[in-house]
């Protein structure tokens, strides 16, 4: 694997791992404030970030070394309103800068697995940014987020969907409805 | 907060988040190879790393910024024998170099919460390294790891203990038996 694609995968693995972790921390705080649905949204999206991190990490299978990883992370935690703002900033950075550039790097270097893993993540992060913005509106009014049905996560690509049932097949990776995990 | 303690907390947060994530990835592989107890050990220790990451991150509560995080991560995943070797390397780095130095930095700078969070992590990482070494011996012989009882995690400090019941109180942080989470 070319070294700049490797660096991009490492950085994305670090970023996704920390996003996953932040959302678990934020879920605990949302519960404390009496926002069980915002907590549920954080836990569901944490699972999508797990899917992304896992996909990126598994592409690095041919290495056997101790790498240094450089990644971005919004800090620090506070109220749910503050936490949702941190979450939105993290997702928007991934959507507007990070993943578009990482896709270009991997395309330029002909690293097809990395291109696919970055594209799958990008599609989910767009949805995450929107869902967190909606949740922020509720939290700012002191209300919990309304979820009709469940938050569904595609375990192959991390696609995130709110509804009574998951989509018939994943619009991002094509996985069948039965694979989706509901939160 | 002094800037070198902040950098150490950030780096430890990144390292713990990625360790948590790797162990979730490694658990899936252990299940595939027919090692359910090694998978259970990975999931339990992933929870301890969640406790560490969460403790470190929560100390950063007064910030509101997008930080750059530099952390180490052993790559890449493979068979359970390879994964256990990566896990042992990560834990030993934390025990032999990282946490002893981060404790010195935080002590020098009078950052008591960081000292405590680093000490709690160090104590657990010593146990993690030993447990993974035992699991590696089994995996190298093609056998699953033997767990008598459960793997118990202290949700306050990440202390990790195998037995029928958790200890009467946590030997690291003093939390009572009832708080432990069993895997
Ligand atoms: Fe993601
Ligand atoms: Fe996301
Ligand atoms: Fe999908
Ligand atoms: Fe840890
Ligand atoms: Fe550990
Ligand atoms: Fe403890």
Summarize the structure.
Two copies of one chain form a homodimer. With 183 residues, chain A is mainly alpha-helical. Chain A has helices at residues 3-32, 36-59, 80-108, 112-140; strands at 65-75, 150-153, 160-163, 181-182.
What would you say this structure looks like, in words?
Chains A, B: Keywords: Electron transport, Transport. Chains A, B: GO terms for molecular function: iron ion binding; oxidoreductase activity. Chains A, B: This is Rubrerythrin family protein. 2 copies of one chain form a homodimer. Helix content of chain A is 61%, strand content 11%. The first copy, chain A, is mainly alpha-helical and 183 residues long. The first copy, chain A, has a single domain, classed as Ferritin, core subunit, four-helix bundle (Ferritin), CATH 1.20.1260.10. Chain A has a 3-stranded antiparallel β-sheet. In chain A, helix 1 packs antiparallel against helix 2 and helix 1 runs antiparallel to helix 3. The longest helix of chain A is centred in the first third of the chain and has 30 residues. Chain A is globular, with a radius of gyration of 16 Å. One fe (ii) ion binds next to helix 2 and helix 4 of chain A.
């Amino acid at each position: 694997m070319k070294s700049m694609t490797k660096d991009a995968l490492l950085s994305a693995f670090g970023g996704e791992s920390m996003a996953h972790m932040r959302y678990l921390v934020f879920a605990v705080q949302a519960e404390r404030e009496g926002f069980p649905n915002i907590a549920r949204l954080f836990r569901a999206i944490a699972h999508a970030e797990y899917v992304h991190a896992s996909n990126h990490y598994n592409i690095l299978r041919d290495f056997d070394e101790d790498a240094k990883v450089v990644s971005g992370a919004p800090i620090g935690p506070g109220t749910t309103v503050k936490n949702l703002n941190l979450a939105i900033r993290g997702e928007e950075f991934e959507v507007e800068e990070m993943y578009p550039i990482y896709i270009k790097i991997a395309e330029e270097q002909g690293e097809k697995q990395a291109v696919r893993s970055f594209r799958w993540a990008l599609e989910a992060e767009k949805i995450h940014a929107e869902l967190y913005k909606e949740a922020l509106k509720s939290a700012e009014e002191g209300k919990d987020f309304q979820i009709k049905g469940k938050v569904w996560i595609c375990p192959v690509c991390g696609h995130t969907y709110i509804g009574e049932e998951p989509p018939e097949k994943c619009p991002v990776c094509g996985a069948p409805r039965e694979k989706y995990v509901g939160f």
